Each structure stands twice: as structure tokens, then as C-alpha cells.
């Protein structure tokens, strides 16, 4: 019976359910898109390219491991955790190679070397490569590993001497190169000019995600800069040996070593380490987006249903008056919500699939996710979205209809005409609890000093405060109405009517204030969190560089030979190479850098607070105050950690410094870091010299792409890379902001469209159409002021706490123009969502509306 009534109600009152339908549909689309990204991080396919002809690949373990043993109540629990390392781990060539060769069923073994190798222009000085228009990275290999794909020569011959080079056909076609031409390549050493001896092409079609350069075996080993080690081994089975049997046999042969065996789809992550690492990032990003989206969706959907049920208060009160029981009303509201939720969830889930595709493409375009990590599409995220939407709709309807169900029928009829002055005590208590919870989260946020910990708390705090505003909204609106009484009454009859509506319909106005506050608070937080962090890091780096000049490169980095050349140049007091990486202490990740120890204090000032960098040496380390506090370190302490390629080492802490945001949490000797990273070239070289920019540029003119910059110009280049990171974060939260903006329009339109009878009575009482519209605009501006003021206050509190925790300063970065833009967008949304439904509500004749049966 209740289901039939629910169907009839939804059919007859389509307009009343449009707002709820739109909110639920957007929520389902949001959850589907975030869920698809999360699933891509968990199960996304990384297909192999260069290892296509090698069914089994042996590579080094790319994780750092930690095993903990706990004894509790006579039981022993063993937990094993693993975290990925930042750089490529290498294998000992002789030991692992000999083990594999002795395995029965192995036909032959192909050692693999992979290293950076970027083509530069044939002429020196520009650093621009013939392959500049290609989006794919370029790697160098030994020619004997061409069999792994396999590559076949289509022109010329294989490389024999150290100056010979074979390029792939894709590069040859793009750059117009052929055998006999010369090409300068920047690899791990100084740029070198090579003679192209051949052009090769993959047997099964061009590679999509990389460009390959092939060198002679000796030259490849020199450029790989890991003597006696290889990137991987490709294992080719003998005739009659299955891949599964070969994989199992090889695993047994390398058991007890750091080697791992991969076959089938597992070869892709070995080939594309950046894609494998991006899985973790995408899981984190998808989870954060999904969690925030879900919280925002719940808040918006509950608010929308509350407004929808408030519009039907008289209808539901009459049902109570004609003997409908509370249980029957609950069932009616619940089944209406389920019907709307099923349809809206299905529509939103279908729309969320292409939306996830657009997001994935944008992440790839910005470099946040490599193109080699393919998007996973399955039925699981849409099904979860539909289920969450239906459950959310049902819960929202039950929550929103709680009061109409619990109060007496006579009281329900009275409240259908006049809004109750005081909300239910349960609502007030819940609002106060959330308000206190928000204050506690702000306090917690002010002591969090890592971005991974503070970012989710930041957005959670905004949502908690928005929930408190939603519950305490009537009190907030009445208080604001009291403050705005003077300005509103001065604006004429429309202002007086607007003030009366604010006071008399505080609950309805609060339903509009909440999404406006959420939009403003969330938008300001998203837009200003990353600039706050970036500006603090940029300021610390700027203040800590004592160098007169900075060497930078358009290619992969500045060669060590360029820094050595500068050190022998007259007038140069110091040249400090800086190479960056990430290390792990236990399983925790820390940004790190390697610097040249000689004359370090002349070019670098990290604001040492304990110890000294004057005696910095090869076995020395310096740590940030954050790392020192977390790890319990001080000058003289021994720090054990894992380098980027998985090598474990120990250093003696010589100094603790304050500028950790600008220079990372760990600083060590340049040569130590350079031996354990994929790219040993310096990101920058800090130069202390009394020579001019032109004189220093002349000293390094033999190194293509290397430029001499002022510290300010180098700082601008770093800022550009940080802006890219900010774009990724903004894109990640853009869906949430868009959903919140839709909620603002939806709620405002619902609030205005229900007032047809009210407007008709005003018209019959003598108000003109223009006066009613003026009253609506004044109301919208008043609500806009209240919502944006609350949202701005929430954002300011959250950003200030974030800034205190992350930078030590209570001064977040707020761009006035961006803030004004947020208010302008909110204002335009509010006015449009008020004006259009208002004009539609005024279209019927007042007499017709007033005499119509309800």
C-alpha cells in the first residue's frame, strides 16, 4: 500500500522531487568517478612494451619491508608491511645471472640496462632536442637487449664502438635522422656526440610510451653508472618449456636474494616504475576525493530532502490528522526516497563513467598519472554509487522527516502554517557537538606537520563546520537578521519584507545558507592550501640560498663535469651540486637532497638550529627540525635509512635545520645520493663567484642546455613546477566544488519555487511584480552575505591552523583577486538561482494561485 502511495506521490509531485533527484544524481556521478580512479590505482593495467618478447623478467625488489612481531595473551601476531622505493633498484649481474642460466628449461638470458638518455640538438648551446615535440620519455639501453622487444634493424648496422648509436624509427621519422648523421645525447655523464649507425623498429609495432636509444655494451655500462649491476634479466624459455614452469623454476633459483620474478601482466610495473608508483598516488587521491565527496554528498542530500519535506509539511500534517501512523509516514518517506534514489543513482552512475575518463585524461595531461597506467572500468564503482545513493536518500529522508513523524498531528498542522521558533533539542545538541568537533579538529590541524596527515584533516574540518552550520542554521540566520536589520530596513519595503522573511522563515533560509557556506569554505580551502605551502617552501629556499648564481639545465640536469669546470674557473669560490631524491626511514618517506660538502656554508644556509654544517663530510647528514622531532635525532645521533634505490646506509647527524620545507627533511653528500638515483645529474648548481653571468656562461658553453641564472630566475622555474602540482590538487577537488555549486543552485531554486502562494498573496496585498523581485534580490544578497561570511570564517580558521602546523606561521597565503572571484561566482549563482525561479513563480495570476485548491 505504502509503495503505491509513494509511486503516486512521486508521479504527481515531480517538481517537488526534482531538487532531490539532481542532488542524488550528482552524488552518484561523483562517487562513481572517484571510485573508478581508486580502482584504477588498485587494479589498473600496466602493459609491457620493451619486454614483450621475454615472457619472464627477473628484477630487483622495488619495496622496503618491515616485519613486526607482537605477543598478546599468549598469541604471536606477525605483520609484514612493504612500501615502494623512489628509484630503480639494481641487480648484481654475475650472481643472479649465473643462477638463472643454470635453471633447466632456460634457452637464453638477456641482461637489461635502462638509463636516462635524452637527445639534444646537434649544435651546442640551445639544448633543444630534435624530439622536443614528442611526449614520450627517452631511455638508453645496450644493443644486445634489443631482443627483449624485439627490435630489428631496418637501416644501417648495430653499434660497435663507444661512439656508435642506433635510434628507433619513431625518433628517426620525427627528427629526420638517418644513418651517418650525428646526434648529441645527454645521459648520466657529460653530453656526448654519437654517430648514428642504424635505425631499428619493434617487430610488433612502434612503442607508444617510450623512445629507445641503443649503445654498444661497454658504452651502455658506462652510462648506466652501476658497474656490475643490471636493471633486469629477460628469460627466454627453451622449446617445450611452459612460461608457468619456467617462472616457478626461476623463482626457486633466486630464492633468498633481492630478486623478484614477473610474468604476464606483472612485467609492466617492472618496465614502467613511474606507473607502478602512481598506483599509490592514485589510490590516495581517489580515496581522499571519494571520502570528501561522500561527506559533502551526505550533507547536501540531507539538506535537500529537509527542504523538500519542509515544502510538503502541510500535506504530511494532513495525513497525520486523518489517522496516518508515524510508522506509515516513515515508510512513505523512505520508499519515496528509495524510488528517487534508484533512478537518480542509476543515471548518475552512468554519467560518472565518462566523467572518470575525463579526470584520468586530465591527470595524465598534467603529469600526475603516467599514460602507461590504463584506466580500469568495471561495474563495481557504479554499483557502489547506486547503493550509496539509495541508502543515503533513505537515511536523508528519515532524518529530515524525523520531526513531522514524532510531533502530534495538531502541532504538525500548526507548524505547516508557522515555522517553529526553536529547533528540536536533539538538533541543537548535535550541532553544538559538531561545532566543538570542528574546533578540536582545528586545534589538531595546528600541530600536524606533514602534508599527508594534514590534507585530509583540512577538508574534513570544513565539512564538519558546514554540518554544524546546517544544524544550528536557524539560530545563525536569526542572529544575522538582527545584525542586518538596520541596512535591510533602509533599503525600502523590499528590505523590510526580506528582513521579516529572514526572521520568520529562518529554517528555510538556513537550508540555503548551508550550501553557500560550504561552497565558499571548500573553495577557499582548496584554492589556498597549496599556495600556503608552496609560498612557505619558496620563501625558505629563497632565504637559504647564498649563491650569486644558479646553474640549471633544459634537459635532465646539470652534468657533474660542468660543476667541476666551474670550480677550476678563476673567481669561483664554491659550486654546490644539488641532486634530489626520496628516502625511507623505516617505512616513512622523507624528501631528501644531496649537496657537495666542500664550502657548503658559502652557498647554502638552511638556518641551522643545532650543530653545524662547517664540518659536513661524506658520512655526514643534516635533518630538518620536523625529522629530528619525529625520529628523536640530535647532532651526534646515528640515522639509519634506506636510499632511493633500496640500499640501506647510516649517517651521523651533524646539524638540525629549520628550513625543511625549502630543502627537504634530510641532506647528505652529493656523491652518496648520485650513486643511488636514476638521474645523477644535478637539479641545480649553486655558484658563489664574483664573475659576471656572461663570464660564467662562457665557462660552461660546451654543455648544451646548461644556463646561468640569477637565484630569482631559478626560483621562478621552481615555482612553475609547484604551480603544476597545485593544478593537480585543484583538479582533484574540482568535482567536489562543482557538486557544491550545483547544490547551491538547486537549493536556492527549490527554496524560491515553493513560494508561489506567498508571492500571490503579496501581489493581492498591493505589492507590484517589481517589488516582489526586489524583495527576492535583497533576500538573496542577505543570504549570500551570511553564507559567504560563514564560509570565509571557516576557511580562515582552517587555513590558519594548516599554516601554523605546516609552516610555523599563522599567515596563510590568500590571493585577494582569487578570493573576490570565489565571492563573485557564489554571488552570480545565488542571484541567477533566485531570479529565474522567482520570475517563473510570479508568472501565474495571483487570483488563480490564491483560489487554487491545495
Automatic annotation (TrEMBL):
Protein name from the UniProt record: ABC transporter permease
Membrane-crossing residue ranges in chain numbering: 288-309, 337-359, 379-400, 428-448, 460-484, 505-529, 730-753, 780-805, 817-836
Organism: Streptomyces venezuelae
Location, primary (coarse class): membrane
Compartments, record wording: Cell membrane
Coiled coil: none
Span of domain ABC3 transporter permease C-terminal: 290-398, 731-842
Membrane topology recorded in Swiss-Prot or TrEMBL: Multi-pass membrane protein
PANTHER family membership: INNER MEMBRANE PROTEIN, MEMBRANE COMPONENT OF PREDICTED ABC SUPERFAMILY METABOLITE UPTAKE TRANSPORTER
Pfam families: FtsX (PF02687)
A single GO cellular-component term on record: plasma membrane
Keyword set, alphabetical order: Cell membrane, Membrane, Transmembrane, Transmembrane helix
Region ranges (Disordered): 120-140
Amino acid at each position: 500500500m505504502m509503495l503505491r502511495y509513494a509511486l503516486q506521490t512521486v508521479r504527481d509531485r515531480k517538481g517537488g522531487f526534482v531538487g532531490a533527484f539532481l542532488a542524488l544524481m550528482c552524488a552518484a556521478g561523483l562517487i562513481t568517478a572517484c571510485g573508478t580512479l581508486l580502482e584504477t590505482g588498485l587494479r589498473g593495467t600496466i602493459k609491457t612494451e620493451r619486454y614483450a618478447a621475454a615472457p619472464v623478467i627477473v628484477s630487483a625488489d622495488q619495496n622496503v619491508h618491515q616485519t613486526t612481531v607482537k605477543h598478546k595473551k599468549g598469541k604471536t601476531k606477525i605483520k609484514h608491511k612493504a612500501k615502494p622505493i623512489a628509484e630503480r633498484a639494481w641487480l648484481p649481474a654475475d650472481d643472479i645471472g649465473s643462477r638463472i642460466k643454470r635453471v633447466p628449461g632456460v634457452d637464453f638470458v638477456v641482461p637489461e640496462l635502462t638509463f636516462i638518455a635524452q637527445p639534444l640538438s646537434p649544435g651546442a648551446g640551445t639544448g633543444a632536442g630534435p624530439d622536443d615535440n614528442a611526449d614520450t620519455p627517452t631511455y638508453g639501453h645496450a644493443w644486445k637487449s634489443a631482443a627483449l622487444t624485439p627490435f630489428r634493424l631496418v637501416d644501417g648496422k648495430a653499434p660497435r664502438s663507444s661512439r656508435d648509436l642506433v635510434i628507433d624509427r619513431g625518433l628517426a621519422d620525427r627528427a629526420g635522422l638517418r644513418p651517418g648523421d650525428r646526434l648529441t645525447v645527454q645521459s648520466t655523464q657529460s653530453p656526448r656526440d654519437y654517430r648514428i649507425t642504424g635505425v631499428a623498429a619493434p617487430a610488433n609495432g612502434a612503442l607508444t610510451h617510450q623512445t629507445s636509444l641503443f649503445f654498444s655494451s661497454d658504452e651502455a655500462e658506462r652510462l648506466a653508472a652501476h658497474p656490475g649491476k643490471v636493471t633486469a634479466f629477460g628469460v627466454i624459455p627453451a622449446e617445450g618449456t611452459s612460461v608457468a614452469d619456467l617462472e616457478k623454476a626461476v623463482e626457486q633459483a633466486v630464492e633468498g636474494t633481492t630478486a623478484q620474478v614477473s610474468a604476464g601482466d606483472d612485467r609492466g610495473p617492472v618496465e614502467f616504475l613511474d606507473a607502478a608508483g602512481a598506483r599509490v598516488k592514485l589510490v590516495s587521491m581517489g580515496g581522499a576525493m571519494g571520502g570528501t565527496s561522500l561527506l559533502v554528498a551526505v550533507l547536501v542530500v540531507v539538506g535537500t530532502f529537509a527542504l523538500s519535506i519542509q515544502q510538503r509539511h502541510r500535506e504530511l500534517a494532513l495525513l497525520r490528522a486523518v489517522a496516518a501512523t508515524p510508522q506509515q509516514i516513515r515508510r512513505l518517506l523512505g520508499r519515496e526516497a528509495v524510488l528517487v534514489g534508484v533512478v537518480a543513482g542509476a543515471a548518475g552512475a552512468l554519467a560518472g563513467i565518462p566523467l572518470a575518463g575525463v579526470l584520468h585524461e586530465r591527470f595524465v595531461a598534467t603529469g600526475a598519472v603516467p599514460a602507461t597506467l590504463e584506466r580500469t572500468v568495471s561495474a563495481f564503482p557504479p554499483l557502489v554509487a547506486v547503493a550509496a545513493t539509495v541508502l543515503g536518500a533513505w537515511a536523508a529522508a528519515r532524518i529530515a522527516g524525523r520531526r513531522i513523524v514524532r510531533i502530534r498531528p495538531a502541532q504538525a498542522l500548526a507548524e505547516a502554517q508557522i515555522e517553529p521558533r526553536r529547533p528540536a533539542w536533539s538538533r541543537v545538541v548535535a550541532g553544538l557537538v559538531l561545532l566543538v568537533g570542528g574546533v578540536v579538529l582545528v586545534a589538531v590541524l595546528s600541530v600536524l606537520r606533514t602534508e599527508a596527515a594534514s590534507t585530509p584533516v583540512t577538508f574534513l574540518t570544513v565539512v564538519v563546520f558546514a554540518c554544524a552550520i546546517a544544524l544550528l542554521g536557524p539560530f545563525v540566520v536569526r542572529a544575522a537578521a538582527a545584525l542586518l536589520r538596520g541596512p535591510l530596513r533602509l533599503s525600502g519595503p523590499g528590505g523590510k519584507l526580506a528582513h521579516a522573511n529572514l526572521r520568520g522563515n529562518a529554517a528555510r533560509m538556513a537550508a540555503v545558507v548551508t550550501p553557500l557556506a560550504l561552497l565558499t569554505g571548500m573553495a577557499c580551502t582548496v584554492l589556498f592550501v597549496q599556495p600556503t605551502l608552496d609560498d612557505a617552501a619558496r620563501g625558505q629556499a629563497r632565504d637559504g640560498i647564498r649563491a650569486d648564481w644558479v646553474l640549471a639545465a633544459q634537459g635532465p640536469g646539470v652534468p657533474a663535469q660542468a660543476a667541476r669546470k666551474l670550480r677550476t674557473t678563476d673567481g669561483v669560490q664554491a659550486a654546490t651540486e644539488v641532486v634530489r631524491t626520496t628516502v625511507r626511514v623505516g617505512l616513512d618517506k622523507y624528501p631528501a637532497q644531496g649537496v657537495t660538502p666542500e664550502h657548503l656554508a658559502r652557498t647554502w644556509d638552511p638556518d641551522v638550529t643545532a650543530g653545524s654544517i662547517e664540518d659536513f663530510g661524506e658520512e655526514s647528514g643534516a635533518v630538518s627540525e620536523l625529522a629530528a622531532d619525529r625520529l628523536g635525532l640530535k647532532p651526534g645521533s646515528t640515522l639509519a635509512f634506506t636510499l632511493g634505490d633500496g640500499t640501506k646506509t647510516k649517517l651521523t647527524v651533524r646539524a638540525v635545520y629549520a628550513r625543511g620545507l625549502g630543502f627537504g627533511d634530510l641532506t647528505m653528500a652529493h656523491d652518496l645520493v648520485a650513486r643511488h638515483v636514476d638521474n645523477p645529474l644535478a637539479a641545480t648548481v649553486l655558484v658563489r663567484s664574483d664573475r659576471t653571468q656572461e663570464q660564467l656562461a662562457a665557462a660552461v658553453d660546451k654543455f648544451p642546455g646548461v644556463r646561468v641564472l640569477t637565484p630569482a630566475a631559478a626560483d621562478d622555474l621552481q615555482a612553475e613546477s609547484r604551480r603544476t602540482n597545485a593544478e593537480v590538487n585543484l583538479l582533484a577537488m574540482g568535482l567536489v566544488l562543482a557538486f557544491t555549486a550545483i547544490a547551491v543552485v538547486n537549493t536556492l531554486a527549490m527554496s524560491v519555487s515553493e513560494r508561489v502562494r506567498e508571492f500571490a498573496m503579496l501581489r493581492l496585498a498591493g505589492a507590484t511584480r517589481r517589488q516582489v523581485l526586489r524583495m527576492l534580490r535583497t533576500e538573496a544578497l542577505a543570504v549570500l552575505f551570511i553564507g559567504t561570511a560563514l564560509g570565509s570564517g571557516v576557511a580562515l580558521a582552517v587555513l590558519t591552523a594548516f599554516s601554523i602546523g605546516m609552516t610555523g606561521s599563522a599567515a596563510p597565503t590568500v590571493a585577494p583577486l582569487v578570493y573576490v572571484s570565489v565571492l563573485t561566482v557564489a554571488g552570480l549563482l545565488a542571484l541567477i538561482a533566485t531570479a529565474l525561479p522567482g520570475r517563473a513563480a510570479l508568472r501565474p495570476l495571483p487570483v488563480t494561485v490564491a483560489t487554487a485548491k491545495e
